C-alpha cells in the first residue's frame, strides 16, 4: 500500500488570511476539527481565529462561513458570518 499526503489548506504560517483565494495559500490558526458535507466541501474549525471556514471541493477556494475572527458570544438568530464565538 502506498499513501500520499497532500496539503489542502494552509501555508504553515499561523494567521488569518486567504478568504476568497486558494486554500493552500491561506493562513490558519489552530485548526482542530474538520468535517465534509455531502458535496465534499471541507469545513475547518479554527480555535484562535474563532471561525469556521469552508474549502470548496470544486474550486479549492477558502471562505469564512461562521464567525468574525473576533472572540465573543453574540449573533444568535443572525447571519453566521456575523456571529462571534
Characteristics of this structure?
85 residues; 0% helix; four-stranded antiparallel sheet; globular; mainly beta
What proportion strand? 15-25%
Q: Which residues form runs of ≥5 with pLDDT under 50?
A: none
Mean pLDDT: 94
Which of globular, elongated, flat, extended, rod-shaped describes the shape? globular
How many DSSP H or I helices? 0
Organism: marine metagenome
InterPro entries: 6-blade_b-propeller_TolB-like
Protein name: SMP-30/Gluconolactonase/LRE-like region domain-containing protein
What does this protein structure show overall?
This is SMP-30/Gluconolactonase/LRE-like region domain-containing protein. InterPro entries: 6-blade_b-propeller_TolB-like. The protein is 0% helix and 25% strand. The chain has 85 residues and is an all-beta fold. It has one domain. Strands 1-2-3-4 form a four-stranded antiparallel beta sheet, with no helix packed on it. The chain is globular.
Brief sketch in words of this structure:
By secondary structure, this protein is mainly beta. The protein has one domain. The chain contains no helices and 4 strands.
Q: Helices, strands, pairings?
A:
Layout: E1 31-36, E2 42-46, E3 51-55, E4 62-66
Organism: marine metagenome
Protein name: SMP-30/Gluconolactonase/LRE-like region domain-containing protein
Amino acid at each position: 500500500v502506498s499513501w500520499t499526503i497532500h496539503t489542502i489548506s494552509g501555508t504553515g504560517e499561523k494567521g488569518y488570511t486567504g478568504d476568497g483565494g486558494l486554500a493552500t495559500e491561506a493562513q490558519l490558526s489552530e485548526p482542530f476539527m474538520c468535517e465534509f458535507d455531502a458535496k465534499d466541501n471541507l469545513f475547518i474549525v479554527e480555535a484562535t481565529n474563532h471561525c469556521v471556514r469552508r474549502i470548496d471541493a470544486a474550486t479549492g477556494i477558502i471562505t469564512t462561513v461562521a464567525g468574525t475572527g473576533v472572540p465573543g458570544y453574540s449573533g444568535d438568530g443572525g447571519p453566521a458570518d456575523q456571529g462571534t464565538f
